[in-house]
Amino acid sequence: MRIGEIAALVGVTPRAVRHYHHLGLLPEPVRRSNGYREYSIREAVLLARIRRLTELGLGLDEVRDVLADDEARELVEVLEELDEDLGRQEAVIRERRARLATLLAEARAGRLAAEGPVSPEFTRLLAGLGEVPDSPMAVQDREHLAFLDAVVPEEKRGSLMATLHGMREHAGEVYGLLDSLADEEPDDPRVARAAAALAALLPDHLAVHFPDKGSGGLADAIFADLAPAQSAAVRRAMELVAERQEGPS
């Protein structure tokens, strides 16, 4: 058989056959006097085995290990590893499909966030927010929430979103106060009023979730997005929450 014939017989491409030769998986057959390869049934059987192993999901290095073991003990071990790996992949796929089902339900109900896809916790938080108020700070706050949803570790995200959920419906006044500080300096007297209003809205344990400014990463990214006076107000609000937690000295 010529290379095209054995490839068609086994169900692979001539290019694949040449690749297997190059990798040493399939020995080069005897060549005729005209230089063409002459394949026998023995090469066809071996090529078919390579094809079956790759269809099972084995990499070519693993196929080489299997073929090198005449007693097929290595084959059992590799197939067991492959089965375990497929089991892990199935678990991941099931989790992703469950997540997709939630997103599809939200989309079909017209409740999928513009920031989506987002976590189920953030989806529930947005559902409680209702329409975004006509406030630049409200829009910016929603962007910050989407950012937190993307970067906060999963084990902390649920607690954080649950903490934020109860405070959003009364945020209108605070948004207005922070909007008024957009073009002001940190020493503006309205900073204290905005900080007090925000602190009154924040749950006591929110400070646990919020990193210090200057610690790098998350906090710095959020504060950098605020105007100087707004940043000062938010920072002071967090300090007031911390002082409230400590109680009277």
UniProtKB/TrEMBL annotation:
Residues 72-99 form a coiled coil. Residues 1-69 form the HTH merR-type domain. Keywords: Coiled coil, DNA-binding. PROSITE patterns: HTH_MERR_2. Pfam families: MerR_1 (PF13411). The lineage of its organism: Bacteria, Bacillati, Actinomycetota, Actinomycetes, Kitasatosporales. The keyword DNA-binding applies. This is MerR family transcriptional regulator. GO terms for molecular function: DNA binding; DNA-binding transcription factor activity. It comes from the Bacteria.
